[in-house]
Design brief:
Layout (H helix, E strand, L loop, with lengths): L2 E4 L8 E6 L12 H10 L7 E6 L2 E7 L7 H20 L4 E6 L5 H13 L19 E5 L5 H22 L7 H15 L2 E5 L1 H6 L3 H7 L7 E7 L10 E5 L1 E5 L20 H15 L6 E10 L10 E4 L5 E4 L6 H11 L7 E6 L3 H7 L4 E5 L3 H14 L3 E3 L5 H4 L8 E2 L7 H10 L6 E5 L5 E2 L9 E2 L4 H9 L2
Helix pairs in contact: 2-3, 3-4, 4-8, 5-8, 7-9, 8-14, 9-13, 11-14
Length: 477
Amino acid sequence: MTTIKKTNSVPKGSNLAIITEKWKNKPNYNFTNDLAEYIGKQFEDPEKKFVSVNHLGQLVFVIIADPKKDGYPALESLRKSGCTITDAVNAHKGKTITIINDALKGSFSWALAEGLALSNYQFIKHKPSAKKNANTLENIYVIDGRMREDHLENLNIVIDATCKARDLVNEPVNILNATDLSNAFKEMGKKAGFKVEVWNKAKIQQNKMGGLLSVNAGSVDEPTFSIMEYNPKNARNKRPYVLVGKGVVYDTGGLSLKPTPNSMDLMKCDMAGGAAVGCTMYAIAKAKLPVHVIGLVPATDNRPGFNAFAPGDIITMMDGSTVEMLNSDAEGRMILADALHYAKKYNPELTIDLATLTGAAAAAIGQYGIVAMGNAPDRHKAKLQTSGGRTHERIAEFPFWDDYYELMKSDIADMKNIGGPYGGAITAGKFLEKFTNYPYIHLDIAGPAFITGKDSYRGKGGTGVGVRLLFDFFANK
């Protein structure tokens, strides 16, 4: 992982990225007059805000930050500039880049460093031929007295956690099944200092988690239920926050086999919600945030083999209610429902679930944000929206009217697991709400969790969406 460090001077041989509000040469840049004059001429065009120069083997980047433009768009612009810079440094086989922030906003250093580091991520462990082209950037240095050491440490932690989530999402099911996912959580718990308990199939059967068992019925691999807890002595909250993540490590659609061409190719990513929860627990614990958080991840693959659950089956859930299963490709809500019911035992302050749950959510807003809904108090929703803006993991809140639940009613069971052609993302959320009795927010990350083409610092493939959002939410409680 690329490491971000503070420094007081530019290390020898380092490439340089300068953030300023108006170009002016300064002694600490160590620029020749010719170089400074060349950069100044580039900025004679008032529309130009970014200049890159290869000066005798040293890459120099200058970013003009408009002092009148602050807030989330400015931070996101700097992250994207970080991607451009990282790509150039790696193409140049450079090992270091130093940020000098001469702008008024200290947050600009954070955003640029974050963009640089996240852009340096690669998933090439299964591609020996790519090792010779591995990224070379190792260290990011920051010259900015406003960046505190604890903030810098937290930045390194959340980048590490996001990259861990990307790794998990990018792993195929022949390498990462439900047991492997739980083992990854155990390993992170040991490293960061949080408790992890994993239920095997026998324990899941003993606790009558009918939703999880029904989805698993077509698989040769056993399901798991991971219970993670971080509870520091200085926790600010009397009642815990509970995070629930969908852990479908591979989704064929079951007997309702996915009909869309190539749609199954990406279904290793259907556990992105579970990865986000586990890696958020890792980040919170490693940063020693003063907050009591519990993470729950039910995990299995969804296949059409053995005694796979069939459309028309009646499933008895962990809470004793019954579900008429009419589409086995609506499996995520079945396993999440059991976990949401289990969360009742904690009497949570707030429960948030993350799931690649519906194509309807992805169709509605694409990869550009997270679809959210819920019954939690406005104060929780507002803080989550603020974190979404700050991290650019933006949230689009959908209505959560009870009318949508009417679409989930069954003639022969308490509920159906699908609600018809309209409001698919919302009916899925209303289904899940029936298994809660506490303040609840549902985050459908189907759009941004896995992308098929590079999107700046988010890269291609698993994005780790949700980790930065939730870490910011808890760090700023």
